[in-house]
Structure formats: C-alpha cells, structure tokens
Design a protein that fits this description.
- By secondary structure, the protein is of the alpha/beta class.
- It has 2 domains: 104 residues, no CATH class; 120 residues, Aspartate Aminotransferase, domain 2 (3-Layer(aba) Sandwich).
- It is 39% helix and 10% strand.
- The protein has 12 helices and 8 strands.
- The strands form 3 sheets. A 3-stranded antiparallel β-sheet has the order 3-4-5, with no helix packed on it. A 3-stranded parallel β-sheet has the order 7-6-8, with helices on both faces.
- The longest helix has 19 residues.
- The protein starts with 7 loop residues before the first strand and ends in a 12-residue tail after the last strand.
- The relative contact order is 0.09.
- InterPro entries: Aminotrans_3 (IPR005814), PyrdxlP-dep_Trfase (IPR015424), PyrdxlP-dep_Trfase_major (IPR015421), PyrdxlP-dep_Trfase_small (IPR015422).
- This is Gamma aminobutyrate transaminase isoform3.
C-alpha cells in the first residue's frame, strides 16, 4: 500500500505502507478481537505507531504507550503495544496531534462537532456561560434560562408535528437509555406493562451503555457483556449492496426486509412491541453512508 498521509476515513486516519505489523497483530488476537478488528481496521491505522516508526523526528512526542486511561472501543493490546494518536488542538474541520500533524476530522468528533473545532462564536458563548453559571441541575422543578430558551427554540422547529417537551442529556447513549425508560413509563401508565420490546437493525449503532449497546446491532458490543438485553430484537440491515440476494432488485430487497420486520412483530406479538429504533443514516461504518 502506497504511503497515504491525512487519509479521510473512519474518523481521523493516517496510513502508510507499513501494514505488516497490523496484520501480525490480527493473526494473533482472539476471535472477539478479530471481530473488533474487522469492524475497525482503519481505527487501528489511526494509531501513530506506523507514523512514529517511519516519520520519527527529534521533535516527535512519544511516551504514551501503556497509558493509564481506559479507552472505549480499544483492544487492550492497543494501549500496551501501540502509541495512541494524541490530539492536541482543533481548527474548523481539522485537528492536530501533539506532533503538529494535521488531520481532517471526518467523523466530526463523534458526530457532535459539526460546526467545527474552536468555532469563535461557540467559544465566546461557552466562556460567557462558564463565567456566569458553569453548572446547575434541572431536578425538582429547577432550571436555567439557557436551558429553557433552548428547549423553546428546538420545539419551535417542529411546526409540522408539534412536540410537547425537550429533554436534555449528555450523550446519544444516555438519550437512548432515557427514551426506553420514558416509553416503558408511558406504557405502564396506560396499563400496558407487557408492551416493552424494542426492535433495531443489525449493523446499527446507538451507543455503548447497557440499553443503547443492546439496541446496537454489533456483535462486538454484545459478546462477553451478556448483551443484548432480552427486550431488544434485531431485524435486517438495509444495505442493499451487501445483503441483497442474487438477482434481487432494490425494490424487492426493500419489500423482503419490510416483510421480515412484519413477521418479527407478529411472531413476538404486536402487543409486546413498543418501539422501532432505526438509524436515519448508518454512521458507525463509513461505507454505509
């Protein structure tokens, strides 16, 4: 593989022609690690091990191998055997590592920095709020003016189908966990305690906490964690190119998936299924976009 620097890929990626060490690691890991590697091969390339081996200079910063942080979506040998990619600053859509190398942040952080890094308006607003009131909760009918104003502004956007309330969380995982609780609460209040099952798609990603990881249709998030939870069901991944049958048109593929979903609901019992959680766009695997 020819040397490629600042390759746009899964998040932030820099690859070189030294793929051999990674292949060696692939052959040595367990079946579970192989599954993780298969899903995240470009994440492995994002480690600076390769660039440090080939582009090492007197000014390069090293010494983070075997660091003390437990990193999510990271195999144990990543932290013991590889130097991590340490990001230091951001400018718009680009980030820079501790050695000054520039990368296009193709994943926008984790889909949450779409306005870019170090956006002056966001920095100014955050600084102003931190100086005035850095934190306060919303328990027991308490709130803050920015929270109330933002909730109203968000709900005003839904003019076609007015929503009742906005509930703020810290992450997508927490949002998915909360919506499951709210749906259960709603059905319990209506006297439908059996209506508790959720349906999501295989290959989807909804988060990494207990419920959101269960909703995610990724084996690596389930194996060794006793997941998915029994109230979560999974149906087909709607990726025509990968999963269509020989000679099957896209319309026929879509019809088959719709029929499979209906049959799953009928098998489980419509009175037990409360929600269907589908991605608008498959974001976890870049080739689904």
């Amino acid at each position: 593989m020819a040397k490629i620097t600042n390759l746009i890929g899964y998040g932030i990626v820099a690859a070189t022609n030294q793929v051999g060490p990674h292949i060696k690691h692939i052959s040595a890991v367990s079946n579970l690690q192989k599954q993780i590697v298969s899903d995240q091969i470009q994440v492995r390339w994002s480690s600076t091990e390769t660039s440090l081996k080939n582009d090492i200079s007197a000014t390069d910063v090293r010494g983070y191998k075997g660091h003390d942080m437990l990193a999510p979506f990271t195999a144990g040998w990543h932290t013991t055997d590889l130097e991590p990619l340490v990001i230091q600053k951001s400018e718009g859509s680009y980030v820079y590592d501790v050695n000054g190398k520039k990368y296009l942040d193709a994943l926008a952080g984790l889909w949450c920095t779409s306005l870019g890094g170090s956006e002056p308006r966001l920095v100014a607003a955050a600084t102003k709020q931190l100086n005035e009131l850095p934190f306060y909760h919303s328990f027991w009918n308490r709130s803050t003016k920015p929270s109330l104003d933002l909730a109203k502004e968000l709900l005003d956007l839904f003019t076609a189908n007015k929503m009742a309330k906005a509930f703020f969380t810290n992450s997508g995982s927490e949002a998915n966990d909360t919506q499951v609780k709210l749906v259960w609460y709603y059905n319990n209040a209506l006297g439908r305690p059996e209506k508790k099952k959720f349906i999501a798609r295989t290959k989807s990603y909804h988060g990494s906490t207990l419920i959101s990881a269960s909703l995610s249709g990724l084996p690596a998030l389930h194996q060794q964690f006793d997941l998915p939870a029994p109230f979560v069901l999974h149906t087909d991944c709607p990726h025509y190119w990968r999963f269509h049958q020989p000679g099957e048109t896209e319309e026929e593929f879509s019809t088959r998936l719709a029929n499979n979903l209906e049959n799953l609901i009928l098998k489980e019992g419509p009175e037990t299924v409360t929600s269907i959680n589908f991605d608008h766009v498959f974001l976890f695997h870049m080739h689904y976009i």
